[in-house]
Amino acid sequence: MDYVGIIIPFVGGLGMFIYGMQIMAQGLENAAGSRMKTLLEALTRNKLMGVLLGALITAVIQSSSATTVMVVGFVNAGIMNLSQAMGVIMGANIGTTVTGWLVSSVEWAKFLSPGNLAPIAIMAGVIVMLTGKRRSTKDVSSIIIGFGLLFVGITTMSSAVAPLQESEMFRSLFVTLGHNPFLGILAGAGVTAIIQSSSASVGILQSLAAAGLVPFNAAVYIIMGQNIGTCVTAIMSSIGAKKNAKTAAIMHLLFNIIGTIIFSIAAIVMFKVFFVEMGAGMITQTEISLVHTIFNIGTTVLLFPFSDMIIKLAKKLEKEDDSEKDESRVLLDERMMETPGIALQSAVSEVMRMGSIVMRTMDKAREVMFTKDYQQILEIKEEEQTVDRLCSGINNYVIKLSSLSLNEKEHQHVASILQILSDIERVSDYCENISEFAETLTERKAVFTEIGTKEMREMIETCADSFKYAVEAFTENDKDKAMKVIEKESQADDLEIRLRTEHMKRLANNQCNTDAGIVYLDALVALERISDHSRNIAEEVLTAS
Prior knowledge:
This protein is mostly helical. The chain is built from 23 helices and no strands. Helix 1 (3-32) runs antiparallel to helix 8 (135-161), helix 6 (97-108) runs antiparallel to helix 16 and helix 12 packs across helix 16 (285-303). The longest helix is centred in the C-terminal third of the chain and has 36 residues, at 408-443.
């Protein structure tokens, strides 16, 4: 048998199937614009609504893997909690069955035969693409062309494997998979993990079924394994993400493994005791779609009441030693850039985290000028280095993101993120400067006068509060707090002028130490700059639409 003549067209057909599925999904996603993300962002704590939305979005983008990666991104960005994520993950498994029904439609709707429909769809899509000028029209053409290519791919695969009907070895292989559930599940998981698409994996199985090669029992076990293999993409996307995002990926894996165990036991009993002949018979493409749908809906119905228990188990499995956490590690994944809206929100989340670190540094800087505590000085310097590394990583990520195909609003958001990132990093620099002023005072054994100490404390408190409100305004998108920053910055400007004037009088009258006096003036400048950068952050919040 000419295996090379089988493998080459089969691989080509698989490539066309996956490519068609991807461009159709991309066209659908682009046509939907930000509405899918808005739907996800608007999720309530109602997990049932999450299931419905997860199914809808997966049906649109034709990939449960893409949906779960999106969920991991939202959890990592803090947009979605684990309870909401659980619902969407359950729904994603249901939505992924749509591709299988599209493929099997050639059996139950003869007019949808690939031989008739695919060429028409591709030609229609090309005409729309060449004649349309608007972006929305181009997206529609991608959907139509992708649909046609998907059918061409499945036809090519089915034709390529047709000669294998005569191969006793190939038939024996599938019989073995049917008799050994573990091997069947492993085969389905392995193939799906390699191509990272359960929809494509089901398509391969359907093309083999069309050639009359797959026994019913083998198909059932392979389908279950495919649901486990599709978890690989989400697990990979969670690498380097926050703990909750990793937990979401583990939830997806647990959900599919538990469902597979339950239905495998049921299938083994069914094929060994009740439907022995049915298990040995060949399965059709439509029956594969039916089994795939029953398995995914059944798993969701069975496990929905126990979803909170799955979340708790996932949390226990995802343990992270706080002592080993590296705050300077940037928790951003470039694979998220496939969905720029999520990548943007992930970047915002990291800027928020950086802001919280600098707020902690600012709290230490409030006191270090007066306590001159050596340990606090060291901690401020270490945290400044952490912020520098974070800033560099986030900046590089956002710049890469800006080169993608973004709409005008997203481009404005990118510019705002970069501005706020820079302002927070500069505040961290000035906090380090304050720690250096404390060192200088210690080295020179200089102290502020009583009135100088009182004035400096007032200035520090005003500027520190200004930054605190700025970070909170950015994190909460709170315009009222942003206005408080503006007020505090104006107070800081007035204070800086008044305190500098008063201090110059004391210096002229020899009422304070010269070394302490120089540090005092430098500190006023640094603190006033902190309030300036805080105002910059507040203005970005106020101008955001």
